[in-house]
Design brief:
Elements: E1 3-5, H1 11-15, H2 19-25, E2 34-35, E3 52-55, E4 60-63, E5 70-72, H3 73-81, H4 85-95, E6 114-116, H5 121-127, H6 135-148, E7 150-151, H7 162-169, H8 174-179, E8 183-184, H9 188-198, H10 201-207, E9 223-228, E10 234-240, E11 250-252, E12 271-277, H11 279-287, E13 292-295, E14 312-317, H12 322-337, E15 342-344, H13 354-360
Parallel strand pairs: 1-6, 12-13, 12-14, 14-15
Antiparallel strand pairs: 2-3, 3-4, 4-5, 7-8, 8-9, 9-10, 10-11
Helix pairs in contact: 3-4
Length: 363
């Protein structure tokens, strides 16, 4: 009769064994938290750019191409050497005898079969997307997705220009859309199928491109607004619904947002910069010739971003509502504490934002 050992049974055993050291002992040559997959035939160019990530802190590994190459230190030995669970434990015990004291005394009793309840790697990574995902894989996935999208001025198969019409109603026109690399999902089925053919479901889910059902998330949010760094590389994006009845109106990728929207204007040179609550407001000001940046909502000016505003004077253009006013007071204090002059834009009507003001005032 099988006895299922609880998940915690092997935690102490695994905790004192370095998964990086095990990868080295197996000849996998880990470097900077990565190594080449031991299933190279599944990869283009034999996994020349390492696809397997290691989290030394959590004792986990994962390949971002092969959905079954993942697990903990025990799985690493099992998969690499094609060992049984017991044989993998024996190998680890011989290599690291100081860890064997944490194994159950009756583990190797004759005739006893033990079923190992493994940690759910997918759940761990979905709750903490940056646990194992290397930055270059995240960037590669985002870039591939953006390259598949249509420019704003391109019609879909039905001849519709839905994203362009949406932006024009908000007085954001073609030149600004092109400069800021705006795109839209013009052919959902083609993009969904191609992304899932080129990337593992785990990678797409952990990045935030697909939902739990395995479908691209942006069917109702087809306007894609990239967050570009100083070199105009897309490191993140937000997706916007065109239908005002859709809630939420915006979707974001999983993981940390690395830079404010339009961070290229934070170049250290003196001058005014206009801090907005969301990319649409920033695009509105960019259309009018202002140096505007945005954070994705009133709560999202990160402390580590404040220094990027060095030598700038900041006009805080948050919405004129309770949340916007409270957040504006808070971020002005943040800037002032760092010696950066900041003040509130104070002429917006109650309950309105920057885009409202420009679209409702023709002059």
């Amino acid at each position: 009769m099988s006895k299922k050992l609880p998940l915690g049974t092997f935690e102490n055993f695994k905790r004192i064994i370095s998964i990086t050291a095990v990868a080295e002992a197996l000849g996998l040559k880990p470097k900077n938290g990565k190594f080449r997959c031991f299933e190279p035939t599944r990869h283009s160019h034999g996994d020349r750019t390492p696809s397997v990530s290691i989290s030394e802190e959590k004792g986990l590994y994962r390949c971002w191409v092969c959905p079954d190459v993942k697990g903990d230190v025990i799985d690493l030995v099992r998969q690499n050497l094609n060992y049984s669970f017991r044989d993998a434990l024996s190998w680890l015990s011989e290599m690291y005898p100081h860890a064997s004291q944490y194994l159950p005394d009756n583990l190797y009793a004759p005739g006893k079969k033990v079923v190992y309840e493994k940690p759910d790697i997918d759940e761990i990574v979905s709750n903490d997307p940056e646990t194992l995902m290397p930055a270059h894989w995240r960037e590669k996935t985002i870039l591939k997705f953006l390259k598949m999208l249509a420019p704003i001025e391109k019609a879909d198969s039905q001849g519709q220009l839905a994203a362009q019409k949406y932006l024009m109603k908000r007085k954001i026109f073609a030149k600004t859309a092109k400069t800021m690399r705006l795109r839209w999902v013009d052919d959902y089925g083609r993009i969904n199928e191609t992304m899932q053919r080129n990337f593992s479901r785990e990678l797409l889910f952990s990045t935030g491109l697909i939902n739990e059902k395995g479908n691209l998330r942006f069917y109702k949010h087809p306007l894609i607004i990239p967050y570009l760094d100083a070199e105009f590389r897309p490191l993140h994006f937000q997706a916007r619904a065109l239908d005002p009845t859709i809630k939420p109106k915006e979707l974001s990728l999983k993981g940390k947002i690395p830079v404010p929207y339009n961070s290229a204007v934070l170049n250290g040179e003196p001058g005014w910069v206009y801090l907005c609550e969301g990319p649409i407001d920033a695009l509105t000001l960019i259309e009018q010739g202002f140096a505007a940046v945005a954070v994705p909502g009133v709560q999202h000016l990160k402390a580590e971003w404040v220094h990027k505003f060095k030598n700038k004077k900041v006009k805080v253009c948050y919405d004129n509502d309770v949340a916007g006013n409270q957040a504006a007071t808070r971020v002005i204090e943040q800037f002032n504490q760092e010696g950066i002059k900041a003040e509130r834009l104070d002429f917006l009507p109650d309950g309105s934002d920057i885009n409202d003001w420009f679209t409702q005032n023709n002059n």
